[in-house]
Specification:
This protein has 250 residues and is an alpha+beta fold. It has a single domain, classed as Transferase(Phosphotransferase) domain 1 (Transferase(Phosphotransferase), domain 1). It is built from ten helices and five strands; from the N terminus they run αββααββαααααααβ. Helix 3 packs antiparallel against helix 5 and helix 5 packs antiparallel against helix 7. InterPro entries: Kinase-like_dom_sf, Prot_kinase_dom, Ser/Thr_kinase_AS, WNK_Ser-Thr_kinase.
């Protein structure tokens, strides 16, 4: 129950266009669920989008900058908010304004230690598994894995046949096999930096002034209106913003 109270507290506190907006919440005592109402994202997630679409490098740069703006907002709170479960399935597309918003803050916390290990293993930094450390740098590691997945359309470490094999590769700092498939040298170098040791891993603030990401990121091949139309899978769709309902068992 405390986890959901924390989630609601964080959702209420954040106010950024790069984070899904909180609307309301309550306890459904009959169903023993906490019901959380958030902004509805009708265009789905990045994970859903990349399954059916090819995304240009320019558009990926734009996405990356938007995600970084969301992370920088969370990490610059006092105390910092750590997402703890950043992945493409939690990055939502707002097709109305052609914007990526970070969602699902169910594991997010102000705490950076003394909390149980939680998240999605292929996106977990080695220090989480080894020492149960959560901080801004572990979110940045997960961001690197998101970039890898967007560029290759492959889940990080999809080559692993078991959880033990997956954990062994992460703890030995062996990168996912899909990294070798990235042909763009600048994106590849960026991901290698994000998957590197935490002491040299760039922060969101660092990357928001990086010339590689900023170059042409605002010159994507689609105009904002065209991009919004492509993002949404339904033709002649009227952009009505209904709320999104999340029910979590307690």
């Amino acid at each position: 129950m405390q986890q959901y109270k924390n989630e609601v507290e964080i959702l209420r506190a954040v106010d950024s266009e790069y984070i899904i907006h909180y609307i309301d919440s309550w306890m459904d005592k009959e169903k023993k669920k906490v019901v959380i109402i958030t902004q509805y994202m009708p265009s789905g997630t990045i994970l859903q989008y990349i399954k059916n679409k090819n995304v240009s490098l320019k558009a990926i740069k734009k996405w990356a900058v938007q995600i970084l703006n969301g992370l920088n907002y969370l990490h610059s709170r006092n105390p910092p908010i750590i997402h703890k479960d950043l992945k493409c399935a939690n990055l939502f597309i707002d097709g109305v304004v052609s914007l990526i918003r970070i969602g699902d803050l169910g594991l997010a916390s102000h705490s950076t230690k003394d909390s149980p290990i939680a998240g999605t293993i292929p996106y977990m930094a080695p220090e989480i598994i080894d020492s149960n450390v959560y901080n801004e740098k572990t979110d940045m590691y997960a961001f690197g894995m998101c970039l890898l997945e967007i560029l290759t359309k492959k889940t990080p470490y999809s080559e692993c046949q078991s959880t033990n094999e997956l954990l062994a590769k992460i703890l030995s700092d062996e990168p996912p096999a899909a990294l070798a498939e990235i042909s763009d040298p600048d994106f590849k170098q960026l991901i290698e930096q994000l998957l590197g040791p935490p002491e040299t891993r760039p922060t969101a603030a660092d990357l928001l002034v990086d010339s590689f990401l900023l170059q042409e990121s605002d010159e994507v091949s689609l105009s904002q209106r065209e991009s919004a139309a492509e993002f949404h899978p339904v033709e002649n769709w009227i952009p009505v913003q209904f709320p999104r309902v999340v029910a979590r068992g307690v």
